[in-house]
């Protein structure tokens, strides 16, 4: 049946090395570290842990310690020893498929600051109703739309053109969300061993997908911006592909300046790098600085990914790719092996939203602004040592902690009924760098922010009192949108 | 940028060997065979053809012949010689992304008998309207449903239970169509080099996905049924996994008997084979024999795939997996790397259809019956030498031709304005076996069947007169649903 995926002792040592988690016996601390990495998705269920002996060698711990740590994991139902397969991580059955495994609150009273995604904006139901007026024409077809609904492709092309990127509808492929767009592009463009430039902190699922495809991630260090120009110039000649989130960068909220866009694009295109620009958050502008011209204006060969999931609603699985025409047939063929096409109703809704100028409803921007301000005010009030970003767009605030304890804080917060995604999850190659950070998504309405931040502050207080490492429930895996 | 995928001379020889295509100079015949294989998707765009020399060695043709054939392909815009990359197949830009590349009719007057998929059934718009009454509850969430809408998972579980398969909703994962369900299962269960038992003719995209995953296909020969029991017993000990379509098998329309279900399931489960049962066409019963109990009743460890795309409408990208609970977390994690979840509106529509007993509307069964009868009558009238299946369900009639000329017929039909999928496309390992077959999907309403079959008969007549090999437009790639 399903086969375990091996994890090397070296890799496990890198993952847990970022967890400077306090007191108690060594085996217990080791078990807690592994447990926490399973919780946030860095160690997926079905992973075969390295042998006790190789883990001992890689970490410098004794074999007795590693053996007792594994025993603890088994006792708490988080791992199983399978005949001939070693020790395999298994999320307990009770949690399988429940929302609690998705980094969401388990109990009725639980709160989560994990996925950067909100409920649908006001007026969404009316938009759907409006879209359904065009339904009969679509129902008269067989509904399979491997490249996308023509109506939607035309509107997207016109929109790119209006932003300074002349685009033929045949350059557009509509996908099942931006995730699926990136997954298709990786399948077509990236070969095992390819080097891919990424931002040093960024969207974890993108890193997971690239790693799965056998790519070697080459991270830009996080400087004043996520794109220090000197580092771009240093790295460009060494990579085949680059992945860039220039608009309301996730998780920092940074917006690449027009000047930097020009400079980065020139450097990468001169080096012959194929650049994928993820514009998922481009439309999620919530006031403040205007968004500069699209990155691809400076590199017309760049491939652009877009999405309606953040600007409009995540329940719409609609993303798109703008690619050179020569790439489109391969993308369509690849998607024929995956989902045959994207939901027709959703495509109608997004086409209608574009037509009516409602892809990022005005009310939504105002609402997100209120959430941002309430969150920042509450954290500044309760946790005055923390430094916070004040993003002009996107769906999260980026916190810098006075100490490198993000993972321990996440464990403590779980005890308080608050689920967090620890900072290391956003740093693909050097997770320890994330211990000083926490992403706080704008998911809660102002009236619930107060309670969430109270819990956060209580968890923070626990850290000082040494209670941080009481084992939390190993029931959260991953939902980071 | 995108890299060509190499195709070995041996494999190309196997593909084109099935094309016994008449007269004319050898280089021209070779070019026509390659062109036709590109047309139906067996050779994807972006494929690097073997060198002229190795192809000559593998086929026994002269190097001059292979060189002139490649030259012809280049002249007609179907291949390009790229510096350092050899000869690469490229679907002409004009066709990129247009419906004509999807095996659909190019012109206004064109007809296609390719995808087994129809327009939405009568009453579908009302169903959507009804489903939208439940929308507000879903809009209050963030819409990300990696395992599926709870409402839909419950209804699917209850339905399995009613069919004799007790099922917990946590055993269900809702996917973006059955294609995506199979793609997820292959990613989780199949490793490169695994042997997978498949029916010797079947759904081409399933074979494409398995081959892409590095699986080795072990086909059951096509006997009285697609599942000769002796061959199942012979093959079972040699494979890790089996893929079975027991209900209205695509493309033959065969229905596995209850007795055979029991026998096949016992043999496979005794051999420890993990079986994937694709029930996509189970609900598409159009009268005649009742459908036996689900295959999985006899092998409760079997993994079941279902879909609403055939029973209801292909524009709904809703499929599902029923799996042992232990497998669900891995499936959900895998899908997080692909599409994060399935469209919420579509899930509501399917849940509503299940609740109202409209997943296969009665009117649709009657309509498909009329289409089947009209198609059979027209073919029997015009092409009396052909043998036809008279399926009790599914979306196509399976024709057996008096000569092994299916590919040549498809080329001739294109000239008549009729697009076909040649029989070899359905035979993964021995395409030549498909030359005696043609799948005729029930896509056209009775009033258009007459015209389509006239064109088919004219194309058939051309074969006799030696005109079959006039080059068709190389503008069709693949849409076989």
Overview of this protein structure:
- 2 copies of one chain form a homodimer.
- The first copy, chain A, is α/β, with parallel strands linked by helices and 481 residues long.
- Chain A has 3 domains: 85 residues, Winged helix-like DNA-binding domain superfamily/Winged helix DNA-binding domain (Arc Repressor Mutant, subunit A), CATH 1.10.10.10; 126 residues, Aspartate Aminotransferase, domain 1 (Alpha-Beta Complex), CATH 3.90.1150.10; 232 residues, Type I PLP-dependent aspartate aminotransferase-like (Major domain) (Aspartate Aminotransferase, domain 2, 3-Layer(aba) Sandwich), CATH 3.40.640.
- Chain A is 38% helix and 13% strand.
- In chain A, the strands form 5 sheets. In chain A, strands 6-12-11-10-9-7-8 form a 7-stranded mixed beta sheet, with helices on both faces. In chain A, strands 13-14-16 form a 3-stranded antiparallel beta sheet, covered by helices on one side. In chain A, strands 1-2 form a two-stranded parallel sheet.
- In chain A, strand 9, helix 11 and strand 10 form a beta-alpha-beta unit.
- In chain A, helix 8 runs parallel beside helix 9 and helix 8 packs across helix 12.
- The longest helix of chain A has 21 residues.
- At the A-B interface, helix 5, helix 6, helix 8, helix 9 and helix 12 of A face helix 5, helix 6, helix 8, helix 9 and helix 12 of B.
């Amino acid at each position: 049946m399903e086969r375990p995926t091996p994890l090397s002792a070296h890799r496990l040592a890198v993952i847990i090395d970022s967890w400077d988690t306090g007191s108690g016996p060594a085996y217990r601390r080791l078990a807690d570290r592994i447990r926490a990495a399973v919780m946030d998705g860095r160690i997926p269920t079905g992973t075969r842990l390295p042998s006790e002996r190789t883990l001992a060698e890689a970490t410098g711990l004794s074999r007795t310690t590693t053996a007792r740590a594994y025993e603890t994991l088994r006792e708490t139902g988080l791992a199983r020893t399978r005949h001939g397969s070693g020790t395999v991580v298994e999320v307990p059955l009770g949690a399988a498929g429940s929302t609690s495994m998705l980094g969401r609150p388990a109990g009725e009273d639980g709160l989560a600051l994990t996925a950067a995604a909100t409920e649908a904006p006001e007026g969404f139901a009316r938009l759907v109703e409006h879209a359904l007026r065009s339904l009969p024409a679509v129902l008269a077809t067989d509904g399979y739309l491997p490249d996308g609904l023509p109506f939607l492709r035309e509107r997207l092309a016109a929109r790119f053109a209006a932003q300074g990127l002349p685009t033929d509808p045949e350059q557009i492929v509509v996908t099942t969300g931006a995730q699926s767009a990136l997954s298709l592009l990786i399948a077509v463009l990236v070969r095992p061993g390819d080097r891919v430039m990424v931002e040093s902190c960024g969207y974890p699922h993108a890193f997971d997908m690239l790693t799965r495809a056998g790519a070697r991630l080459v991270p830009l260090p996080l400087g004043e911006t996520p794109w220090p120009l000197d580092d771009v110039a240093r790295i460009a000649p060494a990579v085949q592909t680059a992945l860039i989130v220039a608009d309301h960068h996730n998780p920092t909220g940074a917006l690449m300046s027009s000047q930097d866009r020009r400079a980065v694009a020139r450097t990468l295109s001169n080096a012959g790098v194929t650049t994928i620009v993820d514009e998922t958050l481009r439309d999620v502008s919530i006031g403040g600085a205007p968004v500069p011209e699209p990155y691809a204006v400076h590199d017309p060969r760049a491939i652009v990914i877009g999405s309606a999931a953040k600007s409009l609603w995540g329940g719409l699985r609609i993303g798109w790719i703008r690619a050179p025409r020569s790439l489109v047939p391969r993308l369509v063929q690849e998607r024929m092996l995956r989902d045959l096409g994207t939901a027709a109703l959703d495509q109608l809704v997004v086409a209608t939203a574009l037509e009516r100028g409602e892809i990022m409803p005005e009310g939504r921007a105002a609402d997100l602004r209120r959430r941002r301000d309430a969150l920042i005010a509450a954290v500044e009030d309760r946790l005055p040592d923390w430094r916070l970003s004040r993003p002009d767009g996107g769906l999260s605030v980026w916190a810098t902690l006075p100490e490198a304890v993000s993972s321990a804080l996440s464990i403590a917060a779980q005890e308080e009924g608050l689920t967090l995604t620890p900072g290391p999850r956003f740093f693909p190659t050097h997770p320890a760098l994330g211990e000083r950070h926490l992403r706080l998504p704008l998911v809660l309405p102002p009236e619930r922010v107060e309670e969430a931040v109270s819990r956060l502050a209580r968890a923070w207080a626990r850290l000082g009192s040494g209670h941080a490492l009481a084992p939390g429930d190993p029931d959260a895996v991953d939902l980071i949108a």
